[in-house]
Amino acid sequence: MRAAALCGALLAWACAHAQHAGHGQDKTAARVELAASVAFDAQGALWAVSKSGVHVVLRRSGDAGKSWSVPQRVNAAAEGIGADGDSRPKIALGPKGEIYVTWTKPLSKPYTGDIRFARSTDGGKTFSAPVTVHTDQQEITHRFDALTVTRDGKLFIAWIDKRDMVAGVTSGKAAKYQGAAVYFAVSDNQGASFRGDFKLADHSCECCRIGLLPRDDGSVLALWRHVFEPNVRDHALGVIHADGRAGAVRRATFDEWAVDICPHHGPSLAADADGHLHAVWFTQGAKRAGVFYGRLRLSGEGGVDALRRVGGEAAEHADLVASGKKVFVLWKEFDGTRARLRAMMSDNGGDTWRERDLFSTAGASDQPRALQHGGRFYAFWNTQREGFVTLAVSP
Amino acid sequence: MNRRNFLIKANSYIIFGLPALQAMAAATRTDALLPFDANSPAALRKTHVGKPFVLAFWSVYCEPCRDEMAEWNAVKQKHPALPIVLVSTDAPADRALIDTFLAKYPPGPVQKWLFADAFTERVRYSVDKSWRGELPKSYFFDAAHRAEVKSGKVDRVWIERWLAKQER
Description:
The structure holds 2 protein chains of 2 kinds.
Chain A: E1 3-6, E2 14-19, E3 36-40, E4 46-52, E5 55-61, E6 72-73, E7 90-93, E8 99-106, E9 113-120, E10 131-132, E11 142-149, E12 155-161, H1 163-170, E13 180-187, E14 195-204, E15 211-214, E16 220-225, E17 235-240, E18 250-251, E19 268-271, E20 277-284, E21 289-297, E22 303-309, E23 315-323, E24 326-334, E25 339-346, E26 354-361, E27 369-373, E28 376-383, E29 387-393
Antiparallel strand pairs in A: 1-2, 2-29, 3-4, 4-5, 5-6, 7-8, 8-9, 9-10, 11-12, 12-13, 13-14, 15-16, 16-17, 17-18, 19-20, 20-21, 21-22, 23-24, 24-25, 25-26, 27-28, 28-29
Chain B: E1 2-5, H1 10-15, H2 18-26, E2 34-36, H3 40-47, E3 53-58, H4 63-78, E4 84-88, H5 95-104, E5 111-115, H6 120-127, E6 137-141, E7 146-151, H7 156-167
């Protein structure tokens, strides 16, 4: 284990802690596995899950990423763990420190999978045996799990599901069903059981992560890449409720990306103290191409305010969080030699921004994750060379 | 449709060495998966100097890529002289999945390559600075190696139109 702390005059804005806790492997290794997710608990401990072969592994850091515990297996029995493109294990913490973990278990047919869930109610000492979240047991697409916990402790899991497309094939209407669907399940008892399978929307794109945002009223907002008529892969917003109801699907982005494509490049969603919705997404639409930030309008016909390009032409996999009126956008961008971790911050809800370079690496890296705890922003990046990199970002 | 000059890295010609040449010779063997890295685009330009060719990227994890294989197969049958370079962006560890995929959805006698660098940003950048990894992604190079870039599944009608332009 090697720990590097880069705190000083050169990095007054950001303090970097890199440690070889990630799956840093050299180029000759069988596979570079970097897909990781992180979350803070209420006490400020940082928890990370990642793929390690046929296991999801959990690590804890009590010092915001300076050091990490040894990896602990979440699933005791070996099984496939999806970590291709936008697919990766997810972690969320409950109000009483419950640790919730989801992942997609690939099945034997291509593009198929089951959404798996395991929990720990003893601070990560032990995990429940993994269960499949959905009741639908067909060997079809149930992939791209997304996970969030509401303030009142309800657990929401959403995923991309192809049962309706498959039903269309069976009934001879397959040509009419575009894309997949978004389904969800809810647990009221800390993940002991789930109610589902509730449908949020027909006609989602097939291979992008879903952004989930818990709201004060106990509902959850979802943002996903949709397939609008005739074949436009822009984003949609929808509200889901703990009783299984889903609100109307609203168009959220208007880039006119009409294409049969597998972007593996899903959106992220955050809300500031004023309730404004902030999002980052990727498009190559007729109207604009690149990674974009915008404030999403929920009222009327919808629309995007304060639209802004994120980074340069190589920018990818942006994530964001908000705290108060501050918004923190994070992305990675290859500069011809190194992959750079870049950020932009706004103090006024996305009206004006300043940009910073946070870190760079000369090897493979995962999608970066933006976090906040106690009003402070953090960047997390799993890199092949430096392992887990956690940066506390001061304004 | 973008029309964009293919990126040239001048030093790629200098470091373009024997292993790459051997790879090129083996490229005609349909059973071989040749290693594709940041030097490969320049090497391919050199191999196909003065001639049109197609450079197309896919993955076993990409659903539209599955349907696109039949398009490549049909184009190759009709235009056997057109070089089609098909590159899997998967990892060498995915080899078994790739073989299964290609057996099930045969693209025909095209050149088959495989990403050989886990630092995939570096490889993508050598092809196209603004390619974020979305698939399928195809580059149709004319004789002067100016590329028409297609994001998403290509269809035969579009390819035939592009081919007709090359013959004018």
